[in-house]
Amino acid sequence: MQLRLLFNLVLIVVFVVGILGAGWHYHAQLQGDAMDEVRHNSEVLMETALAIRSYTTDQIKPHLDPLNAERFLPQTVPAFAATETLHRLGDRYPGYDYKESVLNPTNPRDRASGWERVLIEQFRADGGLKELTGVHGDGIEQSMYVARPITIHQVQCLVCHSTPDAAPTTMRAVYGDDNGFGWKEGETIGMQLVRVPMLYPLEKAKRAFTTFMWSLAAVFGLMFIGLNVALTRLVIAPMARINVRLEELATKDFLTDLVNRRRFFERLETEMAEARTRQLGLSVVIFDLDFFKRINDTFGHDSGDIVLRHTALRVREVLRSSDCAARFGGEEFILLLRETRIDAAMAIAEAVRAKIAGDPFETVGAVSASFGVAEWNHAEDPRGLINRADKALYQAKHDGRNRVVRATA
Fold first, then answer.
1. Quick one: pLDDT at residue 112?
2. What domain range is 294 assigned to?
3. Residue 224 and residue 11: Cα distance in Å, rounded?
């Protein structure tokens, strides 16, 4: 007992020191990696803006400039093209923002805000300063910014921005005579500014850190248990068999031998990721045995269990090896059909329905089921997809049961 106590005390000390040291190091590394990811994304966004500006200047502006004599086209302005394009990117990825922030802009939307003016003044004060980076905002609004100066190096810019009289009449008709004039060659009039949200990388780092720490704790815990088992002369093989059995209990339904709800969601998320990458079809079928409570009440729960087991067997006879069937709860089952569009999914569901309803079950006789089928639209999350299928299932029940209903988009 004295040896066991001393051994466990030493093991606990090693565990505490090890987990604290590893946690500190890994946390610092994850935070650094998250910041590097944000910094990389901001640089990519900035280079994207520069590419759009260059493309507009080289490929768009020469073709559209002749039209500006009749009606000014903002689309020929590289800054306008870059801002418009990346604003649309921001609609899809909130927080990713690009702005050509100017002290005295032609387009009022480009006017610098208070904190942006501070950065512009730094560029104006130091002509050799080529880039500023930093963090702006708090909480979920916190973002990393990269700013580069906009300095007038080309005399052509002054044609539109020196004096109102020198500017094209069509441009003045759109923006007026009060803004965007008085620029001078060599003057820093604003900056290109990109902002990338920090929330997502930092949250990812936080989740990774939490997972790592729990994993590390679990590893040390298993080591602690294993070493104590060795001290009490237990063999490793029985423990391995127990762990395998626990894994089966955690992932399979004991009655039907189908996967359980938890494992189904894991498989669904994996298949969604592959379907999104390869642009494949993916469908789910959810079905419920009709009047199952009546079976339990009339014939007993043992007969109900037999119906559930035989239902699982009949489902397996129809499904492909690549598909996944799960007992979702009670008398409810769910099927995951990979690389399957809605029409094929409806056909498979109909085959399962016919298989269940076609042959009477032992003791209880004929049993039917109602089905809801939904195809993933590559936008919704797993629960959204299942909810649509579930609504179709309820529609099938409402329409008279023993039928297959397609979910609405």
1. 86
2. 251-406
3. 7
